[in-house]
Amino acid sequence: MRVNHHIYVDTAANMTTKEKTMPSQPSTQTFLSEVRRQIRACDLAGSFLVVAVSGGPDSLALVHALHTLSDDLSLRLHAAHLDHGLRPEASAEDADFVRQTMRGLGAPLTLHKLDASEFSRKRRLSLEDAARRLRYDFLSKVAAHEGADAVAVAHTLDDQAETVLMHILRGSGLNGLRGMQADSTRLVSGRTLRLFRPLLSVPKSQTMAYCVGNGLQPRFDESNLSPRFTRNRVRLDLMPSLEEFNPSVKTALARLAHSVSFDIDFIERELDGVEADMLTDDIEQGISLDRARFSQLHPSLQRHLLKRVVRKLDMGLEDIEVSHVEDMVRLMSGESGKRMKLPGDLSFFVDYRHARLLRADFADRPLSWANSTPSRISVPGNTTLEGWTVTAQFLHGTARRRFRMSAYPPGLRFTERFDADSLGRDLRMRTRMPGDRFRPLGMDRDKSLKDFMIDAHVPQRWRDSVPILESNGRIAWVVGWAIADWAKVTLNTQRVLEITFTPKEV
User: pTM of the predicted model, to two decimals?
Assistant: First the structure.
């Protein structure tokens, strides 16, 4: 993916000097009143907001309204504009327009450019989905860099109605009917992003009226008329047809979303009560679910829990349909060893006791190390091997005491700690060999590695390529499953060696 890493930040010299007027047009006053109401309802008065500004009428009206209300509500603003690289000439003009507009408002601005088309090809995503993911990743980075409280985006009632309708067409279930929320959070690339949408009850016609009433001349994106995008076809073809049956269909869909949100809130509280006993974030890249406890849940909670798990690894549920969730439920009650692919580069599979949701590239990592020649591990230091980076470091003091008191969660583990003196420094990584024997943690005698893998429910298709850490000819760690008893940390341990296997980025 070609990325323009240059980020342009424009802070106007007159940031503290604002010439604001409060026009008397009823549409302007109504618009400002709604934005003010949402700010107070979401407890964002006195906050620092990053405002997503495309230059179109919705975002232009929003940033102008927030600027107008900033003194009254003690708001601090920072605009953010992303060029998706889809319209080279027009997008450059859009960026310049936003730059000049923000300078006129005295608001700082972050500009950035990415190649959504290449990202779409690389990740095998639709162009719409790729642009959305890049946009939210960009906004989360700006918010984190600036220390903002939330990111304000200009989704309107029309956008809400279209979103709900698209979810209905996709069969996304109750979560899809809820649509977007005025105040929500999502995890984006490991960062928590708080999204503020104050215009969800405002029709798009009112944003245009606000722009006209305040002398604003927004940019128009001609790609919004292209039938290649699903949302455009919904907006331009399907919605007008539905309005023939109900002229207020947009309001009706938005009202449906508002009603469903109360039911979802109740279900989410119920899930909070069971999640701690059900889920284990056993590795950075994935989540483990206890199959036995899952089977005891009400079917409704089962499905919503699976959606929550997906949401933890992916920034949204836009591509998760009811059919995906139903397939996951069937796997949870079926035979072990089954596996399915999910949108967003996710992989879901079940073993004897757990189900695991992993990023698809990481799910195959235990299969990817097939080098028959042992490779030496640097101690301490980093070692780059096929598909893995192995980090070995000595721990001291409180880190060692915390380790002795902690309990491992179930599931695959790719970080372990050892008695450094028992382990030694002649460490090598290899795969299993005929005649291998292993003394797992807690056992007083060796057993064949083959028997251990069977008893530990290591999937058969993985057994020949599971990484094995060897010390002076003895197996010290079957990576992901168990360390050797002779290498464990004890109360007499003087030095602790921590070893982490990290999958290299694709």
Answer: 0.65
